Amino acid sequence: MNIQIFGTKKSADSRKAERYFKERGIKFQFVDMKEKGLSKGEFNSVKQAVGGIDKMIDENAKDKDILALIKYIADEDKEEKILENQQILILPIVRNGKKATVGYQPDVWKEWD
Q: What pLDDT sits at residue 5?
């Protein structure tokens, strides 16, 4: 397994994801979204794994202006705007190769080998 957890230290779900993997002795790499976000390639890989951009956006994000903007701009511009404003993504984003989840999803992680 090659686990990457994209999250923030302040996110309770990110901390729970870290704890989940630590308790099971599974090595992971934590990427702090405040310091370094998803690259375009990582973003596209996660988007494909979870079933589209809409499943990645946190409807309860604090930045309501960006949320509204992303909701109403053309689809071809959404990806670029989300990459510029990754604070509206559901955290944590957990990747294992081509597989990925958004949010705290231990039931899915259990299935990973």
A: 97
pLDDT on residue 76: 85
Name the CA radius of gyration of the chain, rounded. Answer: 14
pLDDT score at 110: 94
> Which pair of structure tokens corresponds to residue 35?
């310091």
Residue from 18, 23, 21, 31 nearest 1 by CA: 21
> Is residue 1's pLDDT more than 90?
no
101, 94 Cβ separation under 8 angstroms: yes
d(CA 11, CA 7): 7
Structure tokens, 60:
């309860």
For the residues of 72-88, what is the DSSP string, one character each?
HS-HHHHHHHHHH-GGG
Q: Is 111 exposed, middle or buried (0-12, 13-18, 19+ CB in 10 A)?
A: exposed
pTM of this prediction?
0.92
